[in-house]
Amino acid sequence: MGLDSAAGSYSQENVGELVSLLELFCGPGVEGELERAGIFFSHPEQLELMSAFLGAAGEALAAHRIEESEFSSMLAVFRGFERARQVYREQYFPIPDLKAEAVRRFCSARSFEMPELAQANARGLLEFFFRKHVLDAEGLFAPLYERLREQAVREGWAEPPPREEDRGGRRVEALTPAARARRLMGVEGGALDMARLKSRYKVLMKIYHPDLNPQGLRRCQEINAAYALLAAALSAR
After folding, report:
1. Does residue 142 lie in a domain region?
2. Under a CB-based contact definition with an 8 Å cutoff, are residues 64 and 92 in contact?
3. Domain for residue 86, yes or no?
4. Would you place residue 7 in the very low, low, confident or very high pLDDT band (cuts 50, 70, 90)?
5. Cβ neighbours of 85 (radius 10 Å)
6. pLDDT tens string 155-199
7. Contacts of 101 (CB under 8 A, 6+ apart)
8. What global pTM score does this model have?
9. DSSP, residue by residue, 189-233
């Protein structure tokens, strides 16, 4: 890293380069100072922030009851399922509100020396995760979309999902969404609580997070969706 790096532009995409540059000029303790100030979040802290967002989304899903008459109106207005479900999700689960709640939870559990800056950086980091599709609304809200599709099918605005078949064309008993999520997370056996779910999530993210595994984006998205679904089920208990 040369001196010309000092004139570079830094964001969430290359914040690691900024930390390395500051360590070069200021010494190895600068990363800890940046973390305490709320300027830089280590990888474990990033996972905590992502977990806070997924938990907030899961709780919102658990508490929500489908507004059937309103969704019927949306289906009629937009004359189709895809646009209607998008508008419904945007109305009842606005991503900016979920981000704000996640930032509140994340920052309130820590004592940053520059709390307002820490909040702004946490918001920026969540936005970065969405831009990079590490967090993906399509997967996170799949349980909601499944429930909305059931209504759309009943009202003639959508086709039922294709049945699952094995290679011989025989019908396969479909797992429930929760069972699929538990299998994907590797928590099929035994009782499940938030502590166990969060612990397993951190283990999987150390393997599949795209920052650590360039081939892991798709699995990372699936893990995040499974986490949100299971968090919703735990919140509904």
Report:
1. yes
2. yes
3. yes
4. very low
5. 23
6. 999 998 776 555 555 554 567 889 999 999 999 989 999 999 999
7. 56
8. 0.83
9. SS---HHHHHHHHHHHHHHH-TTT-TT-HHHHHHHHHHHHHHHHH
Q: Is 8 domain-assigned? A: no
Enter the tokens of residue 215: 């081939």
Number of domains in the chain: 1
Dihedral angle sign, alpha carbons of residues 235, 135, 87, 80: negative
Distance, in Å, from the CA atom of 189 to the CA atom of 143, rounded to the nearest integer, reads 22
Taking the CA atoms of 217, 219, 223 and 226 in sequence, report the sign of the dihedral they define. positive
Beta-ladder partners of 171: 165
Under 8 Å between Cβ of 202 and 116? no
Cα–Cα–Cα angle for 76, 81, 83, rounded to 5 degrees: 90
Domain that holds residue 51: 46-159+173-235
Cα–Cα distance for residue pair 231/229, rounded to 1 Å:
5
**Token couple for 184:** 């994907």
154 contact partners, CB below 8 Å, separation of at least 6 = none
- 58, two tokens: 């899961």
Q: How many whole angstroms separate alpha carbon 144 and alpha carbon 61?
A: 7
